[in-house]
Amino acid sequence: MAQKQVSAQKQQELQVQYQNYKNNLQQLAQKIGEVESEAEEHKLVLEQLAPLPQDRKCFRLISGVLVERTIKDISPTLKATSENLKTVLEDLLKQYKKQQDEMEKWKKKNNVQVVQQ
Predict the structure, then answer these.
(1) Is residue 39 within 8 Å of residue 82, measured between CB atoms?
(2) Which of 13, 69, 82, 101 is disulfide-compatible with 73, CB 3.0–4.6 A?
(3) pLDDT beyond 70 at 57
(4) 34 vs 112: CA distance, rounded Å
């Protein structure tokens, strides 16, 4: 009886740990999606602005305030932000892969077999 209780408790702990791993992976995947879409937006804006005259006025939303600038003023900022987003995306992908590998090692170590994913 005591063996079954310990086994049930161990099984419950393993389920909680597994769920934590899955939640962390899901959160990272969601964040990766958000950063990818934002990087794509920046890329599209830069492509649209490229053929236009540099002294043409454009508008940018900064913290809820619409600001008037010229393309010459905005382009460097957009390019820098786009590069930063690429770096963040690479870091998030590395984190995701590391977390996934860690979860696989944990599953092998604890002999965990997933019935339903």
Answers:
(1) yes
(2) 69
(3) yes
(4) 31
